[in-house]
Design goal:
The chain is mostly helical and 309 residues long. The chain contains 12 helices and no strands. It has helices spanning 11-41, 45-50, 57-86, 90-94, 103-130, 138-158, 164-195, 200-214, 221-238, 242-262, 266-272, 278-308. Helix 5 (103-130) packs across helix 10 (242-262), helix 7 (164-195) runs antiparallel to helix 8 and helix 8 runs antiparallel to helix 9 (221-238). It is globular.
């Protein structure tokens, strides 16, 4: 039986197994996506690979297909397989058996958190971009800036939505899949796994740090890491994977919705910031702190109810 086969293994063995699953899943699912894209869009392998930074609609559709499979293979596959191997109760391990009540209030608070989080991300992004780098690291910074520019080209290409169907596809690839898959791995498996061997704060921040590093965005690293930590604390407070997953989805979906319906310039916003005043930023950050505090209290109340039964 595969269920719980690694439950008694050392942390090093468990982490190595999780890494191996992610590597296998990434290669396997990316290959499947590539083969399907070649078949559906009548493109050669090299054409699809070169389309990663292209803006041709035909190539973008192929890229969306490959990207979707890659996300599932890299994050969701190792999360599901890992939960099965690491625990006799994989659903409970992942945090899928609970949802903080009342649902309507939780959804509203998560929507508020997602909206107000933009101000915090903007401040952290500006701080990262303004930090001077020593001369001997100048060439490294240039490489990071070039890599970030390449990723922005990918995002801009994906976000060039031409129809409602295109919007739905991008929403799935850029918001739904990453939210479900990444949260399943980082907050569903990695965080509770580390939490069994370390204290809960170390588990949250180590998971968030890896989450930030894997996004491979130098200037956004700090904001992505902080976002990961906030979602980690939500996972800890509520003992539910659903809560950080919904917040992650709202955070990503907001960009897609704003670009499609309000002609929001995502690349310009990253380059220039949101141009919020200090007062506006502080107000939104206070709103974020307030909504997170309410979510903490709801989670604590739910835990108290469960323990009293």
């Amino acid at each position: 039986m595969i269920k719980g086969i690694l439950a008694q293994s050392s942390l090093a063995q468990q982490l190595l197994s999780l890494f191996a699953l992610a590597l296998i899943g990434s290669m396997l699912f990316s290959s499947i996506g590539l083969v399907l894209a070649m078949a559906f869009y009548d493109l050669g392998r090299e054409e699809i690979l070169s389309s990663l930074s292209g803006s041709n609609l035909r190539h973008r559709d192929a890229f969306k297909l490959v990207q979707g499979f890659s996300t599932v293979g890299t994050f969701l596959f190792p999360a599901i397989a890992g939960a099965l191997m690491l625990s006799e109760k994989p659903k409970e391990f992942l945090g899928l058996k609970k949802f903080t009540q009342p649902i309507w209030l939780v959804i509203i608070l998560l929507a508020i958190s997602s909206y107000s989080m933009g101000a915090l991300s903007d401040l952290l992004y500006r701080f990262s971009a303004g930090v001077p780098m020593p001369e001997f690291l100048a060439s490294w910074r240039e490489g990071l800036e070039k890599n970030q520019g390449f990723m922005l080209e990918q995002y801009q290409s994906l976000l060039s939505m031409q129809s409602p169907l295109d919007f739905a596809q991008v929403l799935i690839v850029m918001a739904l899949f990453p939210a479900v898959a990444e949260e399943s791995l980082f907050r569903g498996v990695l965080q509770p796994l580390l939490g069994k061997h370390l204290n809960k704060h170390a588990a949250i921040w180590i998971s968030a740090l890896i989450f930030g590093l894997l996004h491979n965005q130098y200037f956004a690293f700090l904001s992505i890491t902080i976002l990961g930590a906030l979602m980690g604390y939500l996972r800890e407070w509520t003992q539910s994977l659903w809560i950080p997953t919904i917040l992650h989805f709202f955070n990503n979906a907001t960009i897609v919705v704003m670009v499609y319906f309000f002609s929001y310039d995502y690349s310009a916003a990253l380059r220039e910031g949101q141009e919020l005043s200090i007062l506006e930023s502080l107000g939104l950050i206070a709103l974020l702190a307030f909504s997170m505090a309410l979510l903490y209290n709801l989670g604590r109340r739910d835990r108290a109810k469960s323990e009293s039964k």
